[in-house]
What we know:
alpha/beta, Dihydrodipicolinate Reductase, domain 2, 2 domains, nine-stranded mixed beta sheet, 13 helices, 37% helix, disordered C terminus
Amino acid sequence: MLKIGIIGCGKIAEVRHAPExxxxxxxxxxxxxxxxxxxxxxxxxxxxxxAYPGVAELLDSGVDAVSVCVANHLHAQVTIQAxxxxxxxxxxxxxxxxxxxxxxxxEAAERAGKQLMIGLNQRYAKAHIRAKAxxxxxxxxxxxxxxxxxxxxxxxxxxxxxDSWYVDRRAASFGVMADLGVHKTDLIxxxxxxxxxxxxxxxxxxxxxxxxxxxxxVEDNALAIYTLESGAVGGLHxxxxxxxxxxxxxxIYCTKGVLRLYDDPEFSLIVEKSDGVEKSxxxxxxxNEDQTSGGRTSTGVIxxxxxxxxxxxxxxxxxxxxxxxxxxxxxxxxSAESGAAVDVPASLGVLAxxxxxxxxxx
Length: 362
């Protein structure tokens, strides 16, 4: 039985990490810490275990692995501290706030011989797993263009506050591009097995305001045009100002057909080819609203993390694989600041071509 600790006991820990660990038969939740001691104690009261006053005390408590659910600017610091203490780490996204931090995290995991996984849950959605297998098989030919979108009303629906750390540049470093954009950027990398080599991006604060009426400190909308290694080109749009129904969809246009993912209310995967259409209702993407309204839907992230520890096999969303998406996010910032397209530097991010098949078989 693996002993698990959670560092950072805010909303993401409350509605995803803690309950998903509690549902996994291979783990025991034993330790919690948060700068707000009452929040840590609340999770300890609910799930058992003990609340600790700080990270060092929790890491000394005998845990085997931890979830890092603190604010973005602390991800690297806490993750490296945990790895150096000999713990496996599941770190929430975005992985880091600088490219140097991403590399330091991966190197710390390699030195420690421990698993480092990033909470990129869209890799574990069933329609995305199936779509990757289809693309890898070659039955749709080569990817030509793509479009990926993730738009909802913003973090206040998730946190219940208009002034949460999500909109504080000092704590978050980014806005919607790293909150939602990192998911869709990583998804394109995962589905196609290709690096994104060039981007032209726009980051804008269009509507979100703090309680005093001043604009939030980060962008609430972001758009980017990505170029893949093959020359394929596609677009990304992420937004915190969609005040209608959440949109969380992707379309991949290939030489022999089209993949449509989560853009239909009934079918999560639609494959359109000249000889017919395949429609599959595999699952639906877990939304923030499902969790905050009390509904329980599993993202698959916790189970994948636990499996990686038990089997010793690197998770699909390993730190080294996830680092590429962060390089693209940083390039998006540079592009937006310069008003010009920029190249994405080669990164340590590696994506195995067969990870989709392996997860499908599992």
